[in-house]
Design goal:
Order of helices and strands: EEEEEEEHEEHE
Radius of gyration: 19 Å
Number of domains: 1
Distance between the termini: 42 Å
Largest sheet: 5 strands, mixed, barrel
Number of strands: 10
CATH architecture: Roll
CATH topology: Structural Genomics Hypothetical 15.5 Kd Protein In mrcA-pckA Intergenic Region, Chain A
Number of helices: 2
Shape: elongated
Structural class: mainly beta
Length: 126
């Protein structure tokens, strides 16, 4: 499926534009990775400049930082309890930045972007 981020086929008034060229590589986007809860799965994506980006497709562990003691630990994720990006992500167990997750260490808020960075970091919430 192609995600096109260039000019649309129609104007704001609804009239149809004439097609003057095809899609360009720099105008194409990607579908979101929708990081889920489960065994670790990572996909490597080539970027425009040739660099690589890690897409985290699913993960069951998180790096949790305790802000009081400034200590970090690896903890298992139990479930997703809240997500300000989309309320339907909670039911589907999709993790994004800002999502509230229930871990073995307690409730934590995700501070990294799992679909862009390939890792999940979180901070404990009181």
């Amino acid at each position: 499926m192609v995600v096109f981020q260039g000019r649309g086929k129609r104007s704001s008034r609804g009239s149809r534009y004439k097609k003057f060229r095809n899609y360009r590589k720099y105008e194409l986007g990607n579908i979101p990775s929708s990081t889920g809860l489960g065994n670790k799965r990572i996909r490597s994506i080539r970027q425009l400049s040739g660099s690589r980006k890690l897409r985290l497709l699913s993960e069951e562990y998180v790096n949790v930082l305790d802000p009081k003691t400034k200590k970090s630990q690896k903890s298992k994720i139990k479930t997703i309890t809240g997500n300000p990006a989309n309320r339907h992500f909670i039911r589907r167990n999709i993790m994004t930045k800002g999502a509230i997750i229930d871990t073995e260490a307690g409730k934590a808020r995700i501070t990294s972007r799992p679909g862009q960075e390939g890792i999940i970091n979180a901070v404990l919430v009181e």
